[in-house]
Amino acid sequence: MSRRLFTVGPVNVEPEVLQSTTKPMITHRSKEYKQLHGNIVEKIRKALGTDMNVFLLGGSATVLIEGSVRNAVSKKCLSITNGSFGERMIDCATYNGKEAVTVKVPWGRAMRPSHIEGKVGEDIESVNWVSNESSTGVLSDSVAIADEVRKQNPDAMIIVDAVTSAFAADLKVDKMGADAIVFGTQKALALPPGLAIGLISDRMIERSAKIPNTGYYTNFQKLKKNADENYALTTPPVSLLYGLDYQLDRALSEGMAARYRRHDKMASMVEKWADTNLNGLFPEEGSRSKTIGVLNRGELDFDAFHKALKAKGYEISNGYGEVKSSTFRIGHMGDVTPDTLTELLDTMKGIMEEMK
Q1: Which range of residues forms the domain containing residue 43?
Q2: pLDDT of residue 356
Q3: pTM (2 d.p.)
């Protein structure tokens, strides 16, 4: 039975979007591919208001998060974490032999400049964090954190996981001034998984030339050389690129400001529903995600509730990490609208009444 996904990711992909990925295959060294790649890069830059380098790489976003660390850090970095995916960024450093100084912020709380005050010394080569923590539903102010990094150490690279925030929350990309902002196709772009997208600064590419053992697949020198010609380093998922081109046209047609307002409205809807029908949202007020509602489940039997919800054609996400047993999550990103979200929330309320 097919279900409409209101999950944290992969998210629901509309039929017309899936259809856009079925164009005839082309080779990744053809003129047709070069035009497709170039169009996508320009549309991403236009949508996000930046002139940064754009890398398109087959794989989940993690491949470019790990790649960013490998290209920016020879020995030591600082990682801020307030959830499971912040912990993953730490793993991306340590599993590659880097020393990761860690700043741990309580789950459900936003990361703030004060958390790294006095911690970005001259030996820190990069500072890494997740802008929108999927496990807790917390959206931190990445611009403010980036400003604090530069205040302490202008040479430190800034690496930001924007997997569940890009194209849904206004990240103020140019104002942030990060060196790597990474996301993927399977979240707010509402496409199948399989393509990582990175906004990469010139100075990170310059840094990468001095870093040993950056590998091949995520070697920023090689990626840059190919990207400048609107080609991929290795065989890309061409079908996904067709879909990305289609979705970027839709995002630009909607208008990015309108897109951000739509996601903001849906976040408010979930917050109001949680306050009325359960025990509210898990994250602190004022720093709540625009794409993921993390709800306190209280005494709700989530397994029974979710089974009933699936039977009615909807699927949401369980809690994650340290709060798995006390929360559940609703993804409201991509092509979700307030109307379709209302249908979900009304269905959820009906099931809860039946379970009493």
Answers
A1: 16-253
A2: 82
A3: 0.97
